[in-house]
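Homework-ish question, so no full write-ups if that breaks the rules, but can someone show me the predicted structure for this set?
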Amino acid sequence: MGEAGLEALTANRPQATGRPRCAARRRDLRNGLLFISPWIVGFGGLLLYPISASLYYSFCEYSVLQPAVWVGPANYGELMRDEVFWKALYNTLFYAAFALPLGLLVSLALALLLNTGVRGMTVFRTVFFLPALVPMVALAVIWLWVLNGDKGVLNYFLSSLHLQGPPWLTDPSWAKPALIMMSLWGVGQAVVIYLASLQDVPVQLYEAADLDGASWWHKMWHVTFPMISPVILFNLIMGIIGSLQFFAVPYVISPTGAPARSIYFLTMYLYDSAFSYLRMGYACAMAWILFVIILILTLLALKVSAKRVYYGGA
Amino acid sequence: MQAKSPLARLLVYLVLIAGSVAFLFPLLWMISTSLKPTAETMQMPPRWIPSVVMWGNYKQAVFHQSKELGYVPFLRYGLNTLYLAVLGVAGTVLSNALVAYGFARLRWPGRDYLFAATLATMMIPFPILMVSLFAIFRELHWIGTFKPLWVPAFCGSAFNIFLLRQFFLTIPTELSDAARIDGASELRIFWNLILPLSKPALAVVALFHFLYVWNDFLGPLIYLTDQKMFTLSLGLQFYQSQHGGTEWNLMMAAATIVVAPVILLFFFTQRTFIQGIQLTGLKG
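A: Not a homework solution, just the prediction itself:
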């Protein structure tokens, strides 16, 4: 083969292989888009569009019955002056500030106890997990009965200890603590997650610590916590997102957040603004404030934990 | 970590048993109350075990014949919930498996950007979407129908896409390549190869969506207007708002009807459950 022949060959090559490659790329793209087509509808129609529309509505007077009318930042301004909003925000943050750390403590403690090699571990695990299965509305109804002021069984127990139980859910100063207590009943899911990650901690680490004469507390602080820290962080963030949207339980107990709006939470006010008062724009503004709070707290959790969370093994 | 000294072990057992009693008691109390005659629910000190077992309470809650309490048909609510759960589970499994396959097993331009955007949406709280979705469904004349509660399941959800994608990634690519060389289409590979290998992950997604539908309260509250179309959760809340605080035995019978199917489902699918929670909590 001469020079010219070789040149012709190499000159031809890009064309010869180029066309199929291009066609293959197009086929790949077509296949890919076909497979994810449900999500294109979901992502565009049920997420991107609603998010942008909601941001727009938050600057509008919008009753859903009539087209939205642009009013600028008036909704946000009104929220800042709205006492009910501040009350609901306070209740929500109060609830989260107690329910989250207490939930973390209780679930972690139960998981640690279950991980001490006890007999019947799976039975205990099932027992702790069961309440987490109870649908929110049923949970609220059950506790309304247990915490009933006169005929409630908890106050009966307290009275047999010569303690006078409060009327719980109908007393403004006891209603929020009662809700926090109820939230602890549902920590079972976290118990299962923590227990699984505790079982993943390599035994050699504890053996090495034992050789160095480490105490129980040392092993806890220097082995256990670092090893399960990613799971704690994950649960914490899910907890922040969930507890700030607390809705079903307090709504069932009292749709108006009675007594004295002591259990009126942000999502309840949001729901009322949108669907009871038909102030959809106002509700959207509130939703965006809620989102910003969630975002700030999540970023804060990530930042504070950045140096403490250990992503070594898995 | 093992507890070594006998005293420590005894303490661990004591705390665990006390905790178990506290966790189980509300459920047992619910069942006990649901089987009592009305007068016995108000007795002080409480009667732990009903003197007569009133199965009739359940009949009343399911069919609701009590004039005084109005017509709250829990049987109807149960069927409504089941209808939504079946459609929702079918949609969730099908759509998320398809989409996850597209993200995990196919290579196409723009894939990774879209996947990153998908993950980012997991942070969006529902209240942000609530008003806009209501407006969309209102335009479609879907308010007061079941559609807003099951059609979206057929469009996939970020979390399930993520979960299934992670699982699909663990299946060796050689399997797909071999099938491709044999001339199998992508759809065929998806259906005959990947889906059968992914049963455990699909079971987790199906189970969790079933629970989600069973538990969902805000969705039905917003979209359903006709009392006959209520779900169990919404129906129970409605019942409580109308007649709460009077006949606790009927109330607890209704609550048991809402809770029992979930608990039974748990006992039949325990492994999937525990696997699922570990999958979503750890690797998720």
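Now go work out the reasoning yourself. Hint: Residues 3-57 of chain A form the longest helix (55 residues).
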